[in-house]
């Protein structure tokens, strides 16, 4: 009977990576709290949310692309491009109308970047990995052209909402709640159903009259828009610009998606799991920092820990297979 119970538990864990991610998050919180004494204090939690909020939006857009069977390596470069557009178009003394104009340009640039990726991949049948690797250089080059050296500033009133707490709830929580609600709505729409079908089996989806090309195209458009919003929030957070600031965000966005249970093969997963994945990644980095790991080892340790965690589903499947055998 005990063996049957263990087998049933393993089977459920193997099917529900979401549960695995949740257990991993709880374990990470426990370890982090033991190392960081003020971890549960509001100021520490809010600081963590503010730090990783741009990654939440970036990973959410990446999730939609991956569910649709693609991948987007250019999101970090789009973040940088939008960041420098906002900084150079605003300035510390910008008026409200100038801020709105800069925001419109930044969001438009991110959306057009996503549309370029989508058009090349969906209609010209380019490989997603190669295409978005190439457009990374294009968008990063545009960012360097706009702002060759780090610097610039934005008005204080533009940054103020990022540190506000409407109705007593910190701004990052409102954004995270909004992302979750938008995903819940999108998943229930025809586009959401078609997205899973396209990522799961594009040929079968095409034979079932699913507009596979347009679904892929719009998944990249959404990713570009989310990257633009991520760049906007990042600018609100730091108040300055750099053409390289977003490049290191691409890999964490993909790792967060995988940690949240979305299969890189497409057709499975969701944004809610990705939110858990972002928090897991944030806590891993916190643990490494508070464990007094020397700075020159942190990148190596971070990579090894993430690789071990990503191996979790495979280990569960291996254990489950041996149990059933």
UniProtKB/TrEMBL annotation:
What keywords would UniProt list here? Cell membrane, Membrane, Transmembrane, Transmembrane helix
Q: Which residues cross the membrane?
A: 17-35, 55-87, 99-124, 130-147, 167-186, 217-245, 257-284, 296-319
Q: How does it sit in the membrane?
A: Multi-pass membrane protein
Domain of life (superkingdom)? Bacteria
One GO CC term, this protein = plasma membrane
Where the protein is mainly located, per its record?
Answer: membrane
Single GO MF annotation: transmembrane transporter activity
Mind telling me which Pfam families this protein's record contains?
A: BPD_transp_2
Lipid metabolism as a keyword of this entry, yes or no, is: no
Is Coiled coil one of the keywords UniProt gives this record?
no
User: Where can this protein be found?
Assistant: Cell membrane
- What this protein is called in its record is ABC transporter permease
């Amino acid at each position: 009977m005990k063996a049957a119970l263990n087998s049933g538990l393993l089977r459920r864990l193997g099917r529900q990576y979401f549960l695995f991610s949740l257990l991993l998050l709880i374990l990470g919180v426990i370890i982090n709290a033991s190392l960081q004494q003020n971890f549960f204090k509001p100021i520490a939690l809010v600081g963590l949310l503010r730090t990783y909020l741009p990654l939440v939006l970036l990973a959410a857009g990446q999730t939609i692309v991956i569910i649709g069977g693609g991948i987007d390596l250019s999101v970090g470069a789009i973040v940088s491009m939008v960041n420098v557009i906002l900084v150079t178009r605003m300035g510390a003394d910008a008026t409200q109308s100038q801020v709105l104009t800069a925001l419109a340009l930044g969001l438009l640039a991110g959306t057009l970047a996503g549309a370029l990726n989508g058009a090349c991949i969906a209609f010209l049948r380019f490989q997603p990995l190669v295409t978005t690797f190439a457009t990374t250089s294009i968008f990063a080059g545009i960012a360097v052209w706009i702002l060759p050296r780090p610097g610039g500033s934005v008005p204080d009133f533009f940054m103020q909402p990022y540190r506000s707490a409407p109705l007593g709830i910190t701004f990052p929580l409102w954004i995270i709640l909004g992302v979750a609600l938008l995903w819940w709505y999108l998943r229930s729409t025809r586009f959401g159903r078609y997205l899973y079908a396209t990522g799961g089996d594009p040929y079968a989806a095409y034979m079932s009259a699913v507009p596979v090309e347009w679904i892929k195209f719009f998944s990249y458009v959404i990713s570009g828009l989310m990257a633009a919003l991520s760049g906007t929030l990042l600018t609100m957070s730091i108040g300055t610009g750099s053409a390289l600031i977003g490049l290191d965000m691409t890999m964490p966005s993909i790792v967060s998606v995988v940690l949240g249970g979305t299969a890189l093969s497409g057709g499975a997963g969701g944004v809610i799991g990705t939110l858990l994945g972002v928090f897991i990644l944030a806590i891993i980095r916190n643990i490494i920092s508070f464990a007094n790991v020397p700075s020159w080892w942190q990148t190596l340790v971070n990579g090894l820990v993430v690789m071990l965690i990503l191996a979790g589903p495979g280990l569960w499947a291996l254990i489950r297979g041996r149990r059933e055998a």
